[in-house]
Specification:
The complex is a heterodimer of chains A (139) and B (112).
Chain A: E1 2-8, H1 14-26, H2 32-53, E2 61-67, E3 74-80, H3 95-100, H4 107-115, E4 118-124, E5 127-134
Antiparallel strand pairs in A: 1-2, 2-3, 3-5, 4-5
Chain B: E1 2-9, E2 12-21, H1 26-38, E3 43-54, H2 56-72, E4 75-79, H3 83-91, H4 94-97, E5 99-101, H5 104-111
Chain lengths: 139, 112
């Protein structure tokens, strides 16, 4: 199954993104805990994109695709024509530094990397694609 | 969407979080905690029993107060988290850095 969601770059739309992911994965019997971790990672990726690549402009759109096939890892693709924010290029800050510098950001990259199995970037037909893969249990 | 209520009990300020905290609403959590500190509370209890979701933006707010609270001897204790929210804190090991109690009774003990 392939699910597609088009999103305007307002952080008010993150709630809709989370609901879309929850509904798509629950259709396939993915456990609540796994769904909640995936939601967390994708919320982070989408909010980064909205804030850092699109300055929260609600008229600029990107797409989130979810491919679910039983007994295969779930594939999430964030398809966008804005600038690339490659989280693989960023070393996650140590927790101690986050506390010391009173940084309210910096946790997100650590979170995405701990939850997802693989994060890859590619360019296809002039669009930037961030592909995240996660193995889950299907009931 | 988050609703935040504050009640005062036994000299502690209880901040009650209802709903979801993400990048669009974490500022409200930040303001509520800042207000509590500004009013001089040194025991701040965060009631998470109606918190359905928290993203890294919300986690970052709690993290950003750790040092200040240590310096000012303010005790902040979170309590009542559901399994999914508790898991979010533990993925990053924040359960080791923040005080987290089971329920309000335990949270009050931890803050005293």
């Amino acid at each position: 199954m392939n699910y597609v969601y088009k999103i305007g770059c307002s952080i008010e739309n993150l709630k809709g993104v989370r609901d879309f992911i929850r509904v798509s994965l629950k259709n396939h019997g993915v456990s609540d805990l796994e769904v909640s971790e995936i939601v967390l990672a994708l919320d982070e990726m989408c909010s980064n994109l909205m804030i850092h690549a699109h300055n929260c402009n609600p008229d600029e759109l990107f797409e989130l695709h979810i491919q679910v096939e039983k007994n295969n890892p779930v594939v999430f693709e964030i398809i966008d024509d804005g600038s690339v924010f490659d989280i693989n290029q960023f070393a996650e800050p140590a927790l101690g530094n986050i506390i010391h510098e009173k940084r309210k950001g910096g946790l997100g990259i650590r979170l995405v990397k701990s939850i997802m199995d693989k994060i890859e970037y590619q360019n296809r037909g002039g669009k930037n694609i961030c592909r995240l893969t996660k193995a889950v249990h299907f009931s | 969407m988050i609703h935040i209520k504050r009640i005062q009990e036994d000299g502690a300020d209880v901040i009650i979080l209802i709903g979801e905290i993400d990048a669009s609403s974490s500022i409200e959590l930040d303001l509520a905690i800042a207000k509590s500190v500004g009013e001089g509370y040194s025991k701040i209890l965060i009631d998470c029993s109606a918190l359905d979701y928290i993203s890294s933006a919300g986690l970052g707010v709690f993290m950003s107060y750790i040092e200040e609270f240590k310096d000012r001897n303010v005790k902040m204790v979170l309590f009542g988290m559901n399994d999914k929210v508790a898991n979010t804190f533990s993925i990053l090991g924040l359960n080791e850095l923040l005080k987290i109690g089971k329920d309000k009774v335990e949270a009050k003990e931890m803050a005293s």
